[in-house]
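Renewal narrative, Specific Aim 1. Our central claim is that a sequence can be written position by position from structural information alone. The example that follows is taken directly from our test logs and has not been curated for this report. It begins with the structure tokens describing the chain, in the order in which they were read.
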């Protein structure tokens, strides 16, 4: 695998994305329509949108970063660091969390991931009666655990 010798920083320009343009254009109108209906968004939702519209924009704050060797300067805009709506910050947080898990938490340990997909009728039943979900998950967990123990050769037969 080839690793680049150095990478250059390229500033994210959220104002050029379609999502940003749509929110910037229609969000004020949406708030106005809600106020005419005597309704409003929850404060945390309003804050998410407002922070999203400020995220990555130099006019809302930045750091000036200078290379010690060549004295070249770059401007790095502040980010909103929100999880709910901003795709840029959400992706960064996801990458940082994955790196932490791989490098520090799971490092050197074998990991097996199980993906469980229930039939749609069962999903609908569990959505209607969520108190039964924990019982079903216990049964599934016992079945998987029994299979792992049996494959490892610790027991020839396990009663579930």
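The sequence written for that structure reads:
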């Amino acid at each position: 695998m080839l690793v680049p010798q150095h990478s250059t920083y390229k500033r994210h320009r959220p104002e050029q994305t379609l999502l940003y343009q749509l929110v910037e254009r229609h969000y004020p109108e949406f708030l106005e329509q809600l106020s005419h209906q005597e309704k409003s968004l929850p404060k945390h939702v309003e804050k998410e949108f407002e922070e999203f519209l400020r995220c990555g924009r130099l006019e809302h704050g930045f750091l000036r970063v200078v290379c010690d060797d060549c004295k070249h300067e770059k401007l790095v805009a502040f980010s909103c660091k929100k999880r709910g709506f901003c795709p840029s910050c959400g992706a960064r947080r996801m990458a940082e969390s994955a790196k932490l898990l791989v490098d520090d938490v799971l490092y050197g340990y074998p990991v097996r991931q199980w993906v469980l997909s229930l039939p749609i009728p069962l999903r609908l039943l569990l959505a209607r009666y969520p108190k039964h979900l924990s019982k079903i998950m216990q049964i599934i967990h016992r079945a998987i655990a029994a299979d792992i123990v049996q494959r490892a050769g610790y027991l020839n037969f396990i009663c579930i």
